[in-house]
């Protein structure tokens, strides 16, 4: 499974960022530019995933790792963001609401 750190994400990546947290978590604050596709809805929304490479983030990195493993098995080019939104916020980086 491919993974990146919060620092690598913050440095800028030219791929979409999919946030798999639930709707209420996403609404409370997210990494700027993240697209919400909750893990609980992913099976019904696979058609909304980007065609090319993309990053996957959750709160701490656990859910996103599970999602990346499942999507890689389906042929998607997904990368896990270690530390997740929680680490992003804890480090004082911008949060979008």
UniProtKB/TrEMBL annotation:
InterPro entries: GlpE_sulfurtransferase, Rhodanese-like_dom, Rhodanese-like_dom_sf. It comes from the Bacteria. Residues 11-97 form the Rhodanese domain. SUPFAM superfamilies: Rhodanese/Cell cycle control phosphatase. It holds the Pfam family Rhodanese. This is Rhodanese-like domain-containing protein. It comes from Microbacterium radiodurans.
